[in-house]
UniProtKB/TrEMBL annotation, chains A, B:
<dbReference type="GO" id="GO:0008654">
    <property type="term" value="P:phospholipid biosynthetic process"/>
</dbReference>
<dbReference type="GO" id="GO:0005737">
    <property type="term" value="C:cytoplasm"/>
</dbReference>
<keyword id="KW-1208">Phospholipid metabolism</keyword>
<keyword id="KW-0012">Acyltransferase</keyword>
<protein>
    <recommendedName>
        <fullName>Phosphate acyltransferase</fullName>
        <ecNumber>2.3.1.274</ecNumber>
    </recommendedName>
</protein>
<keyword id="KW-0808">Transferase</keyword>
<keyword id="KW-0443">Lipid metabolism</keyword>
<dbReference type="InterPro" id="IPR003664">
    <property type="entry name" value="FA_synthesis"/>
</dbReference>
<comment type="similarity">
    <text>Belongs to the PlsX family.</text>
</comment>
<keyword id="KW-0444">Lipid biosynthesis</keyword>
<comment type="pathway">
    <text>Lipid metabolism; phospholipid metabolism.</text>
</comment>
<dbReference type="InterPro" id="IPR012281">
    <property type="entry name" value="Phospholipid_synth_PlsX-like"/>
</dbReference>
<comment type="function">
    <text>Catalyzes the reversible formation of acyl-phosphate (acyl-PO(4)) from acyl-[acyl-carrier-protein] (acyl-ACP). This enzyme utilizes acyl-ACP as fatty acyl donor, but not acyl-CoA.</text>
</comment>
<keyword id="KW-0963">Cytoplasm</keyword>
<dbReference type="Pfam" id="PF02504">
    <property type="entry name" value="FA_synthesis"/>
</dbReference>
<dbReference type="GO" id="GO:0006633">
    <property type="term" value="P:fatty acid biosynthetic process"/>
</dbReference>
<comment type="subunit">
    <text>Homodimer. Probably interacts with PlsY.</text>
</comment>
Amino acid sequence: MKIAVDAMGGDNAPEAIVSGVMLAKKDFPELEFQLYGKEAEIKKYVTDESNITVIHTDEKVDSEDEPVRAIRRKKQASMVLAAQAVKKGEADACFSAGNTGALLAAGLFIVGRIKGIERPGLMSTLPVIGENRGFDMLDLGANAENKAEHLLKYGILGSFYAANVRKVENPRVGLLNNGTEESKGSEVTKKAFELLTNEASINFVGNIESRDILNGVADVVVTDGFTGNAVLKSIEGTALNITKLLKQSILDEGVKGKLGALLLKNALGGLKNEMDYSKYGGAVLFGVKSPVIKTHGATEPEAVAATIRQIHTMLETKVVEKLTEQFERDDAAN
Amino acid sequence: MKIAVDAMGGDNAPEAIVSGVMLAKKDFPELEFQLYGKEAEIKKYVTDESNITVIHTDEKVDSEDEPVRAIRRKKQASMVLAAQAVKKGEADACFSAGNTGALLAAGLFIVGRIKGIERPGLMSTLPVIGENRGFDMLDLGANAENKAEHLLKYGILGSFYAANVRKVENPRVGLLNNGTEESKGSEVTKKAFELLTNEASINFVGNIESRDILNGVADVVVTDGFTGNAVLKSIEGTALNITKLLKQSILDEGVKGKLGALLLKNALGGLKNEMDYSKYGGAVLFGVKSPVIKTHGATEPEAVAATIRQIHTMLETKVVEKLTEQFERDDAAN
């Protein structure tokens, strides 16, 4: 298994990326890595050269670059070369912590869509609060709008991922809607409800509300890219603000606060750990021909290693191949 | 000023509703209340009869009733009678803690839309975390989908409310979108961006993301009803889950946890108070001819009193009359 790595993407590149690869190598000594980027900088952090190939390039996609233009014009950018390696069959998967839009464009235009999946979706595994498990949600923003047919595909895609990669038995697929009743929703969600209900290959459990997703009402949450993006950012913003407020309130209490915080160190630490979903890996652009994974821009080595673990599972379980086969079979049958 | 009250709506009715009215009466002895519902039950909680009229009815809208059907068929329901009182001019505003959909239907079909406002929106004042102020957001779910033109109206409506009722000078209006760049969004938000930019009567500050709204990036957040509903419920779900998790983690720590929690009592209490936006009152169905306000179903007397304070300000500032005049003027000019 070969993984093409954009070593220059993200705020802490290349240090965090390369250090993360080094961490992951310990668990998966058989994995081969191609690191794209500035050779001299990358090599500083390569502590074990076995199965590591560094491919030098000076160019990189910047966070403020317009995504599609960057992919088309910066032909030698580390991210573009990593995606090209996957396209040419020189690598089995690629990942980057860089410009999300550009990575989505690289996935769609370089790696390419699976036949039958018109609109690949961005999917993450998010935490079920207080339980040691997650749920998959898509689309988190690969698309600015979606049709009901796309949502049906997201149900199938998410279910495939939950069953194969996360080993969830008969995953419950829920449709994010503005109420749980069957009659609820916009034109798109009403039609999607019907399509999902009639899809025999998945375990559709009906409409769910964003209030309940962190409680684990479904193993797979299906939504359009605009709503998914807004919901994910709402969860992140709320969690961040509450944590910040709690810290400030503790500081305001002076010595009493510090003592209280010391006594509650485990409890407060558990809260942080609970909300940190980078332990499940990165966001998958799901529906393209090979795993294309986005890690958070401000990523640390541990999160990079978690992402490599995730990619390893995706490759080992052949989830993308299986998905491709099923869609090709369906396509041939129609 | 006369307020028509659905005394039977919500989980704790009529006790919480009537007790809240009694609380509010102390601050606003001049307000007149019409309490609709079961007379014998209501009277148990009326501790001061001045300016209180109880209008007996046995019928009420239940939480599981289909909204539009309930409004059409349950002609004698306490909520319907309260809305009728407003329509007939016997009351200046109405409020309920009952079935949200039914109250929206009562507002639209009984109280009626302001000419020029095709789709009234549900608006709440939400908290800016760590600061003693709020922001207004609409539509929170009165509509399952909206056109760009509706979002323009929400910008005007929200701005009107923030300026008149909350006394915010030149309120900053932001459009909730999937990125802050001008080019971002769905067809609807792209067009709304253009319409809001060209609207001279408001201070439009551009696209904002749901991650930042609790930080107060705008005084008015404009969004379609589907997204607004999903974002509000995400914020509520996340806050609730974090609080629950924190409590559980503290309990798991045993004596140490209890001691820590005791020392942090103020800090933890501040967190709860900060997230509780019922202090700003209820959700306004904004764009109908008189104030129609929804209070949370599980409301307590304090929240009912806060809602009455809000209604008092809305009536005193004549915000709905001013809005109606402006839209009629615009309508005449076109």
